[in-house]
Design a protein that fits this description.
The protein is of the alpha/beta class. It has helices at 8-17, 25-41, 43-53, 66-75, 78-98, 135-148, 162-170, 181-190, 207-216, 240-251, 266-279, 284-293, 302-312, 341-346, 382-398, 402-412; strands spanning 2-5, 63-64, 103-108, 111-119, 122-126, 152-156, 175-177, 200-202, 221-222, 230-234, 258-263, 294-298, 316-319, 332-335, 372-380. The longest helix is centred in the N-terminal third of the chain and has 21 residues, at 78-98.
Length: 415
């Protein structure tokens, strides 16, 4: 893991700050062919890809039966079931706290405004099933949809592990398909005989899934384009083993993970580097990530450390509570030495589907807000309309929209 200090910091930070989700032309062409194939040939194409890449047996149903889901839940160890139940409880509680509220208020006498909250009709939750089974991603994508009141919740996952099927049964998922990759995204966006199209697609995935979400996003809403994991730890003191273990935890997701340690204490930077070397010895993926994408910044001050973090806008960030007010952008924040980033990946309650590649500059992580529509409402009394009419007609005429002005005048003339 490289140690960067002095004038080199600005150059390295700029590279991280300007990172983009790059989709190669070859990947986009391949994904576009898959999407077009599924649109044209439906289940035939979907099954062909599922057999080729996802291990679907020749006569196996794309849809996982409710009995299979229930059997998976019955088969898992009691400690795993307890862990899933605890995580699900915390995720649900947090989503309930997040849910926006309806209101009606009188903004002027006789002019009432407000908002109503309505869930989207349907959602497709993509749960990766590649390098690791991710039942946690099922909980993170499904539970906020349930809290929002989404009527139809569909899960797609390639080679779904028993743990993932068990998590689905635990939270009451009934529509689950053995489908992954770009072909699953295409089926969710455009529909096949087996899978009816959804209004929105959410959840993480590999470059093919992410590219597919990009290509269908004008026809079907998506949450975000999530790239490789990112993590920053800012510290001036504390146990180097704590900070190193956080970075390794995120680094093991993917060899392309970006992990950064920021400190103004050179000695601490060296100690964390040593811990990283020792603790990643048995974790090949983390070791590759640290080698290719790991940086330790030794800054001149705590203020500069925060500037580095704000410029990068990382998916995960650990810092002290007194620095929180200065932080402008992040996907999810972890305060203090006893708030490991992996806690947020599983059981703290906030969502682990988070913005990457600088997207934290304009949005936060997946939340119950991604599953609802906030619809505004206005109701005006006769007297209030007469009072506000000059404002509306003046603005309408300034814009040259005479019919807008007339729609107000005709009411005032008969009030």
């Amino acid at each position: 893991m490289r140690i960067v200090r002095g004038r080199s910091i600005a150059h390295e930070v700029a590279k991280l700050a300007n990172r983009r989700l790059l989709f190669s032309a070859d990947t986009e062409r391949a994904v576009a062919r898959i999407i077009n194939d599924v649109c044209k040939n439906g289940d035939t194409a979907l099954r062909r890809y599922a057999k080729k890449w996802d291990g679907l047996a020749p006569k196996q149903s794309l849809r996982v039966s409710e009995n299979e889901l229930k059997s998976a839940l019955a088969s898992i160890p009691s400690n795993l079931r307890h862990a899933l139940e605890t995580a699900a409880h915390n995720i649900r509680k947090f989503a309930e706290w997040q849910k926006p509220q309806e209101f009606t208020k009188e903004i002027q006498s006789g002019l009432c405004v407000g908002q109503i909250i309505r869930p989207i009709d349907s959602v497709g939750c993509y749960v990766p099933g590649g390098r690791y089974p991710l039942p946690s991603s099922l909980l993170m994508t499904v539970i906020p949809a349930q809290v929002a009141g989404v009527a139809r919740i569909v899960v797609c996952s390639p080679r779904p592990a028993q743990e993932t099927l068990a998590a689905a049964a635990l939270v009451g998922v009934t529509e689950f398909y053995r489908a992954g990759g770009a072909q699953a995204i295409a089926a969710l966006a455009y529909g096949t005989k087996s899978i009816t199209a959804v209004v929105k697609i959410v959840g993480p995935g590999n470059r093919f899934v992410t590219t597919a979400k990009k290509l269908v996003s004008f026809d079907c809403a998506i949450d975000m384009l999530a790239g490789p994991t990112e993590a920053i730890v800012i510290a001036e003191d504390g146990d180097p083993a704590f900070w190193a273990s956080d970075l390794i935890a995120q680094a093991e997701h993917d060899p392309d993970t970006s992990v950064v340690f920021v400190t103004s204490k050179a000695a601490l930077g060296q100690q964390v580097a040593a811990e990283l070397k020792v603790r990643s010895k048995t974790n090949a993926i983390a070791r590759e990530s640290l080698s290719h994408n790991g940086v330790i910044f030794v800054t001149n001050s705590r203020a500069e450390s925060i500037e580095v973090a704000n410029a990068i806008a990382s998916e995960h960030i650990t810092l002290s509570r007194d620095q929180l007010g200065s932080l402008l952008s992040a996907g999810s924040i972890f305060l203090g030495p006893y708030s490991p980033q992996s806690l947020g990946d599983y059981a703290a309650g906030p969502n682990h589907v988070l913005p990457t590649a600088g997207a934290a500059r304009y949005r936060g992580g997946l939340s119950v807000l991604d599953y609802v529509k906030i619809i505004t409402v206005q109701e005006v009394s006769r007297e209030a309309l007469v009072r506000i009419a000059p404002v509306v007609t003046t603005l309408a005429e300034a814009e040259g929209l005479q019919a807008h002005a007339e729609s107000v005048r005709v009411r005032c003339s008969r009030a």
